[in-house]
Amino acid sequence: MEKKRFYITTPIYYPSAKLHIGHAYCTTLTDIFARYKRLRGFECYFLTGADEHGQKIEKNAAAAGKTPQQFVDEIVEGFYKLWELLHISNDDFIRTTQDRHIKVVQDIFSMMLKKDDIYLGKYKGWYCTPCESFWTDTQVGEDHVCPDCGRPVQIAEEEAYFFKTNKYVDSLLKFYDENPKFLTPESRKNEMVNTFIKPGLDDLCVSRTSFSWGIPIRENEKHVIYVWLDALTNYITALGYDSDDPSKFEKFWADPECEIIHILGADITRFHAIYWPMFLESLGIRKPDREFVHGLLMMKDSKMSKSKGNVVDPFPLVERYGVDALRYYLAREITFGQDGSFTPEQFVERINADLANSFGNLLNRTVSMINKYFEGVVPSYQGRVTEFDGDLESVIEFAIKNYENNLDDLKITEAITNAMDIVYRANKYIDETMPWALAKDESKQKELASVMNHLATAIYTAAMLLKPVLVTASDKAFDQLGIEESLREYSHIYKLDTLGGQKVNKGEPLFPRLDASIEVEYIQSLMNGNK
Ligand code: MSP
Predict the structure, then answer these.
(1) Cα dist. 386→68, 365, 376, 435 in Å?
(2) What is the Å distance from ligand 1's center to 295 Cα?
(3) Rounded CA separation 257/350 (Å)
(4) Among 119, 314, 421, 440, which is most buried by a count of CB atoms within 10 Å?
């Protein structure tokens, strides 16, 4: 049975530096999905946040001459601004330095200790400070570099607590088998099993003594909880797990009727897909339904990352091109689930081809023609009058079905192409039906009315399907088509006789065509840090 409530999360980002377009990508795609589900009538809880502890943040704060708390407070302000700019519709924002989180993480640690799932030992191994990860000899190879980010690792030795991973391995593998949709794309699961689980898992280090910016362990205050146990538990501490008010936890986690989805980048799959289910099992709590791993944005073959300094800042892009253009580009250009690269040429081309020339132009032409031929009033549905009406209707119907199936399965890029199929078909329909010729022929007025009605329906449907992506432009398209408020609900989609009698309003072009050479140069200058 389909679940009618759902909980969706992004990773909580490190406030070690300003966020870049890679983080914006993950949060935007999660937001698109949350908005879609709300549009379809689901009750949704959408969480994002900041992962504020760890050695890297301690170091960066010291280098900036600030306390770690001052340092993260300032950076997290920027997170809030970015999410507002991108119209992110999260219901909550968790910070791991909040009391609601700290106390519960300490309780969780105590529970695991009491259960003998955590023990005190000694750790000697390779450590990557930027990634906050320990690695084995095999993983760092002869060059002693981090397998995730490729930077040099250092030997670290200290007394530490460990989580007994081997106690939970068999049950994790069984869980993978019984829940084939848990970890997708499928290739990620194979990677987990073959690269990490089969060669044998080491117990996971869950505390550190060599730095102090973390949550202290109550039973042994010289230790702080190692970032991943602290970080992953945010998904339940934000819901009030183990607190005075666990109502959200009951509703959005414990209740099997709620679907739980984590969205995350490929760089942190191991922690989410292996250790997180183990932690939950140790606590006796159900596991999430789905973990969807998206690809990473690259810059010239290397992962875009703050510490490499090869990042694109989303703020100036939104300022110049608008929130819809950036959201659309991210969701459409980079197939959700695969790596992609940001290039100024593709950015400008995508906006021009899809938004300016196809979607915006279709709206513009249609509104002008309804003004010119029908005094601004959308003619009512006439049935299938021209020889092309039937085909356009079935393209619309088929697109809606595919869009819903794809989005329900988190195939966001594919779903957008389904919506755009309507736009492309409608543009072709104008060429086929030639309304300007029909207008000149007295005997073709019924055909002309049918064409205008079909075009309005096509734009209305495409704008509705694109609403989770185009958070301002879809409503502007509805305004220009004169769609009354009550018809802006998804439940009205594809009723052919919906639009007759609506009064159109000609407006500004939604997406003015960009001059490619000027804009490519502008974006390049941002990337070179010249602005
Ligand atoms: N704090 C941890 C996550 C803890 S979740 C319990 C962390 N933070 S992070 O800020 O380094 O990155 C988090 C996520 O940001 C990545 O998993 C990914 O979703 C996104 N991205 C960071 N860099 C990215 C790209 N270059 N491209 C796409 N997404 C990127 O890891």
Answers:
(1) 68, 19, 21, 11
(2) 10
(3) 39
(4) 314
For the stretch 399-449, pLDDT in tens is 999 999 999 999 999 999 999 999 999 999 999 999 999 999 999 999 999
Q: What is the pTM of this model?
A: 0.94
Residues 6+ apart with CB under 8 A from 443: none
Protein residues with CB under 6 Å of any ligand 1 atom: 11-14, 22-23, 25-26, 51, 231-232, 234, 264-265, 267-268, 296-297, 303-305
Q: 2: phi > 0 → left, psi -120 to 50 → alpha, else beta; which? A: beta
Name the residue of 25, 55, 95 whose CB sits within 8 Å of the most ligand 1 atoms, as the mutation to test its pocket.
25
Report how far residue 474's alpha carbon sits from residue 85's, in angstroms, rounded to the nearest whole number: 17
Q: What are the strands, taking DSSP E only, across 57-182?
A: 92-95, 118-128, 133-135, 154-163
Q: pLDDT tens for residues 327-364? A: 999 999 999 999 999 999 999 999 999 999 999 999 99
3-state secondary structure of 130: coil
For residue 294, list its beta bridge partners: 265
Q: Which two tokens stand for residue 308?
A: 């490499």
Count CB-CB contacts under 10 A for residue 252. 25
% helix, strand, coil for the chain, step of 5 = 55, 15, 30
The residue nearest atom 13 of ligand 1, judged by CA position, is 13
Residue 54 DSSP symbol: S
Q: Is the pLDDT of residue 531 over 70?
A: no
d(CA 526, CA 528): 5
Contact by Cβ (8 Å): 455, 496:
no
Strand (E) or helix (H) holding 396:
helix 389-408
**Strand positions, DSSP E, 401-445:** none
Distance of CA 330 to the CA centre of its chain: 10
Closest residue (by CA) to atom 15 of ligand 1?
A: 23
Mutate-to-test residue for ligand 1 from 296, 307, 313, highest number of ligand atoms within 8 A of CB: 296
- What Cα–Cα distance (Å) separates residue 306 from each residue in 13, 19, 336? 12, 8, 22
Residue 184: enclosing H or E segment and its boundaries?
strand 183-184
Identify which of 530, 469, 158 has the alpha carbon closest to the alpha carbon of residue 327. 469
At residue 246, what are phi and psi to the nearest 5 degrees? -85, 20
At residue 54, what is the residue type? G
Instruction: Check: CB of residue 12 under 8 Å from CB of residue 264.
Output: no
Q: Are 299 and 25 in contact (CB under 8 A)?
A: no
